[in-house]
């Protein structure tokens, strides 16, 4: 069996990081599902209407759903196979096992030797056998039946309530905890999207507006181009990162300054990346009658030109969602 990143004679490369590449891809796709409420439609759809079957039909949502399910399934399949290999390397090498075989093998080992070290550490995973089987079943329905998908709120409930708690526990395992390549950058406002999504879904009634906001925060955190500087950086490394960030922001700041001067729009600090590049775009709603002109504007969107964090009017108030951010739809000091 090839070790990590070792190439065989036919050019195939073994990569032990594949599971976490799948995890990152799945999270990217799932976090992006809020955007279906405005990218496929002229006006933003209220989040409450997304919870009603038949109210919207979006090819973007279907594409994101397929990626979310298949990549989460691949993540857990590779984790199960790796667990088998840690216990019985010979079995894993001799047999090309799939999702169901790996899960069955681990359950058999657990029954025969429940005190085995790896088995004890992944007991939380094996105890959720039905969740894993459901995820595998959803993946198989996509693969073999085509257009079959969970509706928007059902996907939120399944991913936030069943899958993300397992993801958190798996990534906290001793042998995976050092792998941070899959995780998003820290948010300036202090919110952890995954932890907050798990908490929100566990406290009914579910606030789908807050879930949408948390997903968009997670998506933008992945797109944040600012290099974060930690305390372990050397002076030379710190200087290089500061200079790189400065060069990136020169272009963004010029764009923001131009937009503010031309459109006379407000600019705020972004709750995701922390840069003063969070713009409030407005639509002109000026009305006229025979006597006068009534100047008025309607907020269209809030968008950060640095990390791409973007919300529409279907998320009415960030602070009402229980997140420590200002209400950017209204002017404030």
Protein described:
- It is a single chain.
- With 333 residues, the chain is an alpha+beta fold.
- It folds into two domains: 18-183; 235-321, no CATH class.
- The chain is built from 13 helices and six strands.
- The protein has helices at residues 18-31, 36-39, 47-50, 59-87, 89-94, 99-112, 117-121, 123-126, 129-145, 152-171, 193-201, 208-223, 235-263, and strands spanning 266-268, 278-284, 287-288, 293-294, 297-304, 310-312.
- A four-stranded antiparallel β-sheet has the order 1-2-5-6.
- The radius of gyration is 23 Å and the shape is globular.
- It starts with 17 loop residues before the first helix and ends in a 21-residue tail after the last strand.
- The model has no long low-confidence stretch (mean pLDDT 82).
Number of strands: 6
Q: Tell me the domain tally.
A: 2
- Shape verdict: globular
The helix tally amounts to 13
Largest sheet: 4 strands, antiparallel
- Mean pLDDT, rounded to whole units? 82
Structural class: alpha+beta
Helix percentage? 40-55%
The N- to C-terminal Cα distance equals: 62 Å
Output the radius of gyration: 23 Å
Encode the helix/strand succession as letters. Answer: HHHHHHHHHHHHHEEEEEE
Please list the strands of the largest sheet in the order they lie side by side.
1-2-5-6
């Amino acid at each position: 069996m090839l070790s990590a990143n070792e190439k065989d004679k036919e050019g195939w490369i073994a990569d032990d990081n594949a599971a976490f590449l799948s995890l990152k891809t799945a999270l990217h796709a799932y976090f992006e599902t809020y955007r279906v409420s405005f990218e496929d439609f002229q006006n933003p759809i209220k989040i409450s209407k997304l919870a009603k079957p038949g109210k919207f039909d979006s090819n973007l949502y279907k594409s994101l759903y397929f990626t979310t399910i298949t990549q989460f399934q691949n993540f857990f399949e590779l984790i199960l196979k790796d667990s088998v290999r840690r216990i019985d390397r010979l079995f894993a090498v001799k047999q090309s096992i799939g999702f169901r075989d790996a899960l069955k093998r681990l359950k058999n080992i657990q029954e025969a030797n429940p005190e085995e070290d790896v088995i004890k550490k992944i007991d939380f995973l094996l105890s959720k056998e039905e969740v894993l089987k459901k995820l595998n079943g959803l993946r198989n329905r996509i693969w073999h039946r085509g257009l079959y998908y969970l509706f928007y709120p059902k996907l939120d409930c399944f991913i936030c309530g069943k899958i993300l708690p397992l993801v958190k526990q798996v990534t906290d395992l001793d042998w995976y905890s050092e792998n941070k390549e899959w995780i998003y950058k820290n948010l300036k406002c202090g919110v952890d999207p995954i932890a907050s999504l798990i908490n929100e879904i566990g406290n009914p009634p579910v606030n789908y507006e807050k879930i949408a906001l948390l997903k968009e925060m997670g998506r933008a955190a992945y797109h944040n181009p600012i290099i974060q500087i930690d305390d372990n950086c050397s002076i030379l490394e710190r200087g290089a990162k500061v200079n790189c960030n400065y060069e990136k922001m020169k272009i963004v700041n010029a764009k923001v300054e131009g937009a503010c001067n031309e459109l006379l729009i407000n600019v705020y600090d972004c709750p995701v990346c922390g840069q003063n590049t969070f713009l409030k775009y407005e639509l002109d709603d000026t009305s006229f009658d025979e006597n006068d002109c009534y100047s008025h504007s309607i907020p269209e969107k809030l968008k950060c030109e640095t990390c791409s964090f973007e919300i529409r009017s279907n998320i009415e108030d960030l602070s009402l969602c229980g997140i420590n951010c200002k209400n950017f739809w209204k002017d404030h000091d």
